[in-house]
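Notebook, p. 212. Picked up where the previous page left off. The plan for this session was modest: take the two constructs that came back from the sequencing core last week, fold each one, and keep the raw output in the notebook itself so nobody has to go hunting through shared drives later. Recording the first one now, exactly as returned: residue sequence, then the structure token string.
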Amino acid sequence: MPFFSFGNAPPIADDLIIKTELRVEPPQKIALSNTPKKKAPPKISSTVSADPIANLAKGEEGSGGSGQLGNQTGQAFSLPESSTLYFDAFLDGQLLQTASLDWVVDGNNYRLSINIPYAVVGPFLFESRGTLDAYGMAPAIYWTQRGDKPPRYSRFDRDASGGGKMFFSEKPEFTPDILPGTQDRFSLMFQLASLLNGSDKIDEAGSIRSIPVVDYNTLEMWQFKSYGEKETEDIPTLGKAINRHYALMQRESNPYKRQVDIWLARDLDWLPGRIRSMESSGRILELVFKQKAPIDKAKLTN
């Protein structure tokens, strides 16, 4: 699989440019295909839980602050089992070190942690924690840290309807309304995986899925084009396998910001097998699946 380094961002494919206003469908509720066994919410080991960001999340997970998850009818939804995924990490086509993604499910709570080592400036860290609500994944806290820079966090203050307010450490004065179903940059992949685990009869080729997405200082509606279910070699370590490719669409009227491509793998219970993010400068960060392992229980405390 080729990796390219760009000085400037290449043009966006014409089929990924939004030229007219798209109709955004209202969020749909979910119906759990299999209810996870109830346990106490997962906690980070003591060395990490002392982090002020971790303390911010306490009381958020499973606290009832998000939309109620009941026995409603809706889209079939099944969370992937807990696991650790390892990836080859590339920056501008240059291989870094092995990145890890910890996906922990305990009852209706989840934690998603990503560590991308980078020798020059220190690791890139991302973490999302939350619970399930009537619309699926409901992040409570999302934070990022690059090297020795201070962490940046986004806090979801959800109400009983699944809405609420956002709070950003980078922009304290910016408190936009949360729409039901709002995700962060990484939870959105597991929302898609859980929907596909519930039913693979969704998001046929050419369809567009709208998802409200939070980053460290923004809340925007992202539109993803689905290329459907295909047998490809887009994830080299899996060989020829059934994958789903989603690509972020760009509005013609807006300046180019970021291009995001996600490949979800059926052999991985629709977990991400490849993730590519390209900034407006042309800088590309790419993660390519390497190995899957059971979650290390030593990372949890009872």
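Okay, moving on. Second construct, recorded in the same format:
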Amino acid sequence: MNHHTPGHLAPHIPADDWNRAQATGQPVVIVVNGTTPPGVPWRRLLIPFAIAGATVAGGWGLVAALCFLLDAAAHTATVIAGAAGPIGIGGITLRLARTKNT
């Protein structure tokens, strides 16, 4: 098929329009409307859920990291308080940590 014959792409072009275009040398513009595929547009649905899932996973990751850091800080404070023993100022003694015996 050369560019002079419309072929099966344009059976709707009226003969007089085709002949006039051939005589004047004007191009014939064929507009093909795109059709949307039937069914559910999965990409349009999956992208927001993927973003929401990543946000939730990141939030839980931040909560887990915060819990880990608070746990490490509590253990560090316990070790330091146990090693320091009682702290006294002017006759008032403050025990920061209890020994296992008492």
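Notes on construct two before I forget. The CA atoms of residues 35 and 88 lie 84 Å apart.
Flagging for discussion at group meeting.
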